[in-house]
Amino acid sequence: MARWRLRQTLRHSRLEELRARLESRARVRRPWGLPGELRRLADGAIVRSGSSAAADIGLDLLAPDTADGYVVADQAASLIEKYALEPASAAQANVLLRAVPIEAWLLGGRNAGPVAAVALDLAAYPDARSSRAGRELLARLDERRPDG
Predict the structure, then answer these.
(1) 116 close to 131: Cβ distance less than 8 angstroms
(2) Fewest beta carbons within 10 Å, which of 7, 14, 52, 136?
(3) Domain range enclosing 127
């Protein structure tokens, strides 16, 4: 029944319309880390998303001093410790960790998140350029859907 409901929702909704409903898909943590640690973090410790995955999907967005990605929720604390990430205010944070419960984890073996997830994450960014890029990508994805 849940899969049927999901298919119906996806069939009758544009991706941008689903953004608010999907925001709770992960618990977001915003720590701060040293630039060298951020590179190591984005090179395999997380499943890149948002600006960290922009180049993977052909977007011209650069954010070299940040890391954005998904991690299994029960591994978030050890990852924060391993990479010496420190608590930070939203304005100071340069890491966006999206902790997904293990029972919902579908990203194993990926370096970057699915294009739709990257687009949704970018669309939620506070800066206008990234947000616009995310919304435009969501619109292109909707156009490609067979029922779009």
Answers:
(1) no
(2) 7
(3) 25-144
